[in-house]
Structures are given as C-alpha cells and as structure tokens.
Design goal:
D-Amino Acid Oxidase, Chain A, domain 2, 32% helix, FAD/NAD(P)-binding domain, 399 residues, 2 domains
Length: 399
Amino acid sequence: MIHDFCVIGGGIVGLATATSLLQSHPGASLILIEKEPDLGRHQTGHNSGVIHSGIYYAPNSLKARLCREGSRRTKEFCAEHGIRFENRGKLIVATRPQEIPRLNALRDRAAENGIDIEELGAEAIAEREPNVTGLAALFVPAAAIVDYRCILETLAAQLTQNGAEIRFKTSPRAIRESAGHVEVDCIGETIHARKLVACAGLQSDRLARIAGLSINHRIVPFRGEYFRLAPQLSNVVSAMIYPVPEPGLPFLGTHLTPMIDGSVTVGPNAVLGLAREGYPKGSVSLRDIADFASFPGFWISIAQNIRPGLNELGNTLFKSRYLAECRKYCPSLELGDLRPMEPGIRAQAVMADGTMQHDFLFLQTDRMLHVCNAPSPAATSALPIGDMIAQRLVAGAAA
C-alpha cells in the first residue's frame, strides 16, 4: 500500500501538520509514525504550558504572525473541545536599571505587533502581584496557560476519526526517495508514501541525514531544568512572571509559571545537555556528545556565548544560584521552596557559522519536507505552523 502522506513525529507540530493535511485533502490516506510508545514524550510533554502572545518577536515577522494566530486558534480549539485554559496574563519585570531600555523596546514591539499591554511602575507591580518586586514591568493580558498534552490527545483522536493511522514504536532506519514515492524502512516493515514530512524535533538532523540530505547544522540539546514550588506557595503569583530576556539568545529566562493543575513552576534555565533524550540529572550519551562536539559550528557558538553559558552552568550546579535568579523578582522564595521536577530538553539548531537558528529551518525535496528547526513558541503556534508545513509539502520543492 502507498499512503498519500507519511508524517514522522508524534509531537504537537507533527499532529498539527497531519491534521492540516487531512483537512485540505479529505479522504487521503495518512500514517503518522512515532518511535516512542505514546505521544508527546519529548518537547511537547515538557514545555511550560504557556500560550504565548507574540510580544518578543520582530514586528511583521513570520514568528510574530504565527504566534498571534496560534494564540487565537489554540484558545478557540480549547473552547471548542472543552479543554481547560486560563488567561492569567504575563508580567515581564525589569529588576535592574540596565533592563529598562530593553523593556521599553518590548513595549514598542508590542505596539507594532498589535498586542495589548499595560505599563507598570514599582508600586503598580506590588499592587498587582504582592510577592513580586521590580523597577518597571509590562503586563500582557493575552498570555494564558494550558496542558498541551490535552491538546495533543484531542488532535490524535480527531486524526483517527478521520481515518489516519497512528503507529507507535516505529522508528525509521533509512529513508529513500524515488520518482513516484518515498520509502521509510523500519524494523520489520517498509512504509511507502507519496509525500513525507518529518517533524522529529530532537532527532530532526539525523532523520535528514538518513534521508540523504545535506545539512549545514546540528541539533544541540539544551537542558531546561525546572523546580516546582512547595504546595503552600501555589498562590504566590497570579500571572506568569518573566524577566526581561537577554538580547541575542533564544531563551526567555527563568520564570514563575502557574500551571493548569494548580501548581507553580520555576524555570527553566538553559544549560548544554549531554544527551538529547536523557532527562535524569547526569544523563550522558557519547553518541550525542560526539554529534555536536565534532561540528565546528558548536565550538564557535560556545565561544560567542561563553558568559551566559557559564552563568547557566553555575545555576545548574548550585541550587542557591538558581534561587538567586528567582529572588530578583520574587524575594520571598527560600531554598526549601524549590522541589524537584523533571526537566525539558530543547532541540536547538546551530548553524555552521555558530549562530543559533532563531527561525524556521526546512529542508525540502520534491516529495519530502524535513522540519529541522521549529522555534519557540512552537506549541502556541502549532496549528498555523501545521498549515504552513502542509502547504509547503504539497507545493513541493519549488515552494
């Protein structure tokens, strides 16, 4: 049997893409394969649960447009399917004088992106969030929280109802493209499809290579370590509390986030990971280390980001330093308030010149499209990202 479409990857971008393909091609045959025993085992299942507003992104950029559209559509999807979400809002807090110009730049960016904000001084911050201190802040009311696993499960149910096959524990060993179709060799079977899209996250560069594509980047895993606050602190904040982000880095800093289950998390930091899928502390994969250590772009990137890299390493080695980051804007927190929580691992594409890829990175042939970088906030933007990927796949390499 030759399927019309094969989607590789059971995260939210893969399922959103599959959904868009079936919506635009009713009755098409689609198979989605996932190497894990269930969906969302990696980035989708380990994110902070935030529906972002798009305030951080350059005006009129693709990321800004996709985030705004994604925020709206995610909330509409949740409302339609009875998935709980809460519009908590986000408070971006400047705690040092040198952060004020960057906060003002975010204010201007919000205006250009058409995002409603409220400017707050120190007294207004304390009035809105009594446990938070800062010199100035921006409040973004559109930011919300949700459990993305619930969205993922609903998308999967829709796909199967529309005739798609979702197959677990199925990992490609080789991918071959011919004039008429693509062959995906897996243990015990070969899957045939007229078109293939790979949304493989942490393994995306490897899938591109086994498909015979030439790549100019490597996936470097960045470990995001979280803590969960003690239960008695579940009301320490009402909104999400974010620092002003460091310029030039694709990370938003250590933040306080109320979760949809009623808890509050602190994090993540962003430290180099030594295993792409090793979540326990101290996880090491020699294969993964060899992959990025043998890539010259990795060492250029390390040299360019040595100061923030050392700071993040210090935060992961010393819990007291991690706490100090949080206490810049929430000084009442104590060391014992930080309880262990499973980390997340971000797939960061690093280019040959050492730059961290902040935008989408696609590799495409006549019958394949490989999503090699889907930048944050991919979960918020998943539905319009899925539409964009599906359109590019169907249009072919000339798109």
